[in-house]
Design goal:
Blueprint lengths: L1 H5 L4 H28 L2 H4 L3 H29 L3 H8 L11 H9 L2 H16 L1 H10 L3 H58 L15 H8 L7 E5 L15 E5 L3 H6 L12 E7 L2 E6 H4 L4 E7 L3 H12 L5 E2 L10 E2 L1 H9 L10 E3 L2 E3 L2 H10 L3 E7 L7 E2 H16 L8
Helix pairs in contact: 2-4, 4-6, 4-7, 4-8, 4-9, 7-9, 8-9, 13-14
Length: 420
């Protein structure tokens, strides 16, 4: 209800919902497997008492399926934010796209519900015999479960017609909305990819990037796992559309030795010089620091965090590797991410770390400058170093902090209040 009222899920709420929903789908799959595996036994067994016992177990499983599905549907059908989240693909939890819509459609199927109601009528006629056969087979617990399911079975029969009508109406509306959404995403993807490659003419006096090899090596020696790197290309056309001076962010994941010291398993990150998790137009990928810092200006925010919390942050961040880039900049969904969303979903909800989304152009999002401002204002981060603000010197500590604050005041005063 809080997410529906807010209009989106926070990252920690998102993960809790996914975990519960995944467990529900696993339980649902187990019950379905039971029903399907027992179905042949209804015809193949010669003993009438054994057939009744098999029917009683499979019908109990089917009743649980209907009741649990009805509960989930009742929870989400009047809450579009919840429905959309349950329909969203999430590879971290092995959730495919539109699982909730398929669940709703199946429970609204005339054919499936006809079989279910036919089974209910048989259960009504043979209830005593079924219960006796279950008791005789040492399955008294199933008898109790069936008694507990009876009120819900009656209710599900009466609710079916209403549910069928509601699904048909939703399906009609969503077909049009879905087509519109796909078309708009294609436009944003095409436009976003083009803008990412374009440069502002006459913006730079000298070719190449201002961060040289010497600066890169000096910065690399100061970085540690969990640092947030915020960067800028002076001539990027996207600077005209993004708020403030600092448009892009990435997460420094550290060296294999650092991650090992935190008690983390390396997985497939140990090869090469991988040290950054960054979302760009080709997706959320592990990258080398030299690629991330091939820019004109950058700053580094160091989290105020314990090793235990830092391990949690990195473990959460790694689960997003491989996702596609979100050209629509929609922070309400987690199947595609933009650059700052990697930081947002890694840190939010860990210890004291909490970010507030801002509404820009009708979307809830978190810009790189939002990360800087909120991080400094709430004491979640400190400025470690910066380069390229007003000159080509790599500055540290308080000198870096003052330069960063100056860049925020100069270029971002119109977006949010000043902090210092």
């Amino acid at each position: 209800m809080a997410a529906q009222e807010r209009g989106y899920y926070l990252p920690d709420e998102d993960e809790r919902l996914r975990e519960v929903y995944r467990r529900y789908l696993v339980a649902r799959g187990t019950l379905w497997e039971m029903v399907l595996s027992l179905k042949p036994g209804l015809k193949e067994r010669d003993d009438e008492e054994e057939r009744l016992r098999v029917f009683g177990v499979s019908f109990c499983a089917a009743a649980m399926l209907v009741r649990s599905a009805s509960f989930v549907i009742g929870l989400a059908k009047e809450r579009p934010v919840v429905w959309k989240k349950l329909d969203e693909a999430e590879p971290r939890y092995l959730l495919k796209r539109k699982t909730f819509t398929r669940l709703y459609r199946n429970l609204s199927s005339y054919r499936w519900m006809w079989f279910y109601h036919d089974a209910w009528r048989f259960f009504e006629r043979e209830k005593s015999a079924i219960e006796e056969s279950l008791e005789a087979g040492g399955m008294g617990e199933v008898v109790q479960w069936l008694k507990e399911e009876e009120p819900f079975i009656q209710r599900s029969r009466m609710a079916f017609v209403k549910r069928r009508f509601a699904y048909r109406l939703h399906s009609f509306v969503r077909r049009n909305v879905s087509g519109y959404g796909k078309a708009m995403f294609g436009i944003f993807q095409l436009g976003g990819s083009a803008v990412a490659e374009l440069k502002q003419p006459f913006k730079k006096k000298l070719p190449g990037k201002r961060v040289c090899l010497e600066t890169l090596e000096e910065a690399a020696g100061l970085l540690r796992a969990g640092d947030v790197i915020v960067t800028r290309h002076d001539d990027a056309l996207s600077n005209l559309f993004l708020p403030g001076y600092w448009p892009h962010g990435a997460l420094y994941i550290g060296t294999p030795e650092e991650r090992e010291a935190l008690g983390m398993e390396e997985g497939d990150r140990s090869g090469g010089n991988i040290s950054v998790l960054e979302a760009k137009k080709d997706g959320v990928l592990y990258r080398e620091l030299c690629e991330t810092l091939a820019v004109d200006a950058f700053l580094v925010l160091r989290p105020v965090i314990s090793n235990k919390e830092l391990k949690e942050v990195l473990e959460k961040a790694f689960t997003h590797e491989g996702k596609l880039y979100d050209f629509v900049f929609d922070f309400r969904t987690a199947d595609r991410l933009v650059c700052t969303e990697v930081v947002y979903r890694a840190y939010h909800g860990v210890g004291r770390f909490s970010f507030e989304l801002s509404q820009r152009s009708g979307r809830h999002c978190l810009s790189a400058e939002d990360v800087i401002r909120q991080g400094l204002e709430k004491g979640m981060f400190e400025v470690l170093m910066c380069f390229g603000v007003e000159d080509g010197t790599l500055r540290h500590g308080e000198h870096a902090h003052s330069r960063v604050m100056a860049s925020l005041r100069k270029f971002g005063a119109s977006q949010s209040a000043e902090i210092d």
